[in-house]
Amino acid sequence: MKNKIFMYLFFFAILFVIFQYMNEKAIFENQEQQIESMSEKLTRAQDSLKVLNERTAYLNYFSLQGNENAMTYLENLGFEAQDIEDRVAGYIRDQNLQEGNHPMVPYEGMIGPMKINKIKFLNHRWILTDFTDGKYWGEMLLEYYFNENNELEIVTLGSLLYPNT
């Protein structure tokens, strides 16, 4: 009788070990699939990030901060590119606070005063701006430089007023 009990216990233990092995194997395989899936997602995300970084670098070439030659030019004059952007953009935005149209915008506002909304530094000399009176809008190309007294001078090179459609 004791032998039968030991034999049943032995078979029960073997069945229990087989059950545990199969259960752990299924869990392990599931985790391996999850790791592989996450690894593939990570690779795709890294590839996308690389493409976006390359595209951003390409698009930022026509910006003051992305153009090494323009930054070097300003540094040779004793300026920092970010300081120049802040100073020039601040000056342009301060003109929006004046009564009436922005003095650099060569168009009269039709439903309100023309004000500059956006400023994009193209390099160490040119700025692209967007202006509007709330309904009508346009764009301007400005040239900026510092004269021999290090005073900021801004000249409108060209502008375009879009018809309201």
Write a brief structural summary:
The chain is an alpha+beta fold and 165 residues long. The chain has helices spanning 2-59, 68-76, 81-95, and strands at residues 115-121, 126-132, 137-146, 152-162. The mean pLDDT is 89.
Characterize the structure shown:
The chain is of the alpha+beta class and 165 residues long. Helix content is 50%, strand content 21%. A four-stranded antiparallel β-sheet has the order 1-2-3-4, with helices on one face. The protein is elongated. The mean pLDDT is 89.
Question: Low-confidence segments, ≥5 residues, pLDDT <50?
Answer: none
Average pLDDT value? 89
Q: Let me know the number of strands.
A: 4
Major β-sheet, in short?
Answer: 4 strands, antiparallel
| Cα shape | elongated
Distance between the termini: 99 Å
Radius of gyration using CA atoms only: 34 Å
Identify the strand order in the major beta sheet: 1-2-3-4
Order of helices and strands: HHHEEEE
Helical amount: 40-55%
Beta strand %? 15-25%
Q: What structural class do you assign from the helix and strand content?
A: alpha+beta
List the helices and strands and how they pair.
Blueprint: H1 2-59, H2 68-76, H3 81-95, E1 115-121, E2 126-132, E3 137-146, E4 152-162
Antiparallel strand pairs: 1-2, 2-3, 3-4
